[in-house]
Amino acid sequence: MGHALVTIKEALAVAPGIQWVRLIALRHAAADAYGRPRLECLLAGT
């Protein structure tokens, strides 16, 4: 979560004209029953 907050603050600092930031943090999860790779959403917000 700390990295996410720093990233949001940096985005607002380098582009002061933007109104909001959307952040989605994903990670690789174990394969599903068919062997296909999956992603898990750890964090999503605006």
Largest sheet: 2 strands, antiparallel
Element order, helices and strands? Answer: HEE
Strand order of the largest sheet: 1-2
The radius of gyration computed from the alpha-carbon positions, rounded to a whole number of angstroms, is 15 Å
**Distinct helical segment count:** 1
Helix content: 25-40%
Number of strands: 2
Structural class based on helices, strands and sheet pairing: alpha+beta
Distance between the termini: 14 Å
Oligomer: single chain
> Total domains, how many?
1
Any idea what the shape is?
elongated
Q: Quick check: average pLDDT?
A: 93
What features would you describe in this structure?
The chain has 46 residues and is an alpha+beta fold. The chain has one domain (1-45). It is 28% helix and 33% strand. It has one helix at 2-14, and strands at residues 23-29, 38-45. Strands 1-2 form a two-stranded antiparallel sheet.
Which descriptors apply to this entry?
2 strands, 28% helix, elongated
Please sum up the structure shown:
This protein has 46 residues and is of the alpha+beta class. The chain is 28% helix and 33% strand.
How are the secondary structure elements laid out?
Elements: H1 2-14, E1 23-29, E2 38-45
Antiparallel strand pairs: 1-2
